[in-house]
Design a protein that fits this description.
Strand content: under 5%
Radius of gyration: 19 Å
Number of strands: 0
Order of helices and strands: HHHHHHH
Structural class: mainly alpha
Distance between the termini: 43 Å
Low-confidence stretches: none
Length: about 180
Amino acid sequence: KELIMFPIGATLSALAGGFVIGLAYIGLRTLPVFSGQSASLLGYVCIFCFYFVEYYMLIFFNAGLAACVLSRFQGNDPTFRYGVQQASKHKGAIFGYAWLAATVGFILNTIARRYKFVGSIIANILGAAWSIATIFIAPVLVTTDLPPVAAIKESAQIFRSTWGKTILGSLGFGLIG
């Protein structure tokens, strides 16, 4: 029952991180140095920081939950503290992945905003592919010491080997239908 603390912790920490970045943006916008072009740059930097903090918090707590689930599969009775400790052991890999995911999210958001309708379609397709490729990223990060790109490849490989053919078959029959 205490594992419910992972989604609660992720939500609260993501809200707190977003709040802090929002306050920093508001505070920095009042400085005279941030006017015109520099104000736009500040906005982009703050958006990227927001993406990074949100991804980091989400992946950190998902990795902790994944560690607990894997421990439970081995017959143990893991606690919230155990999951946080396991995620903390891999905070470097989580940091690297969060940085990469924030970059991808920022680029997709920029494509969607800059190219309106067509950009939104492209960003949605690429975003869906990214989501599928990284669906198993939390367990991969907490069970390996792979760098972010290798962890994404491993996550995609796990997806392909477990659900890939089923999903492709469903999409194929759906398109035919």
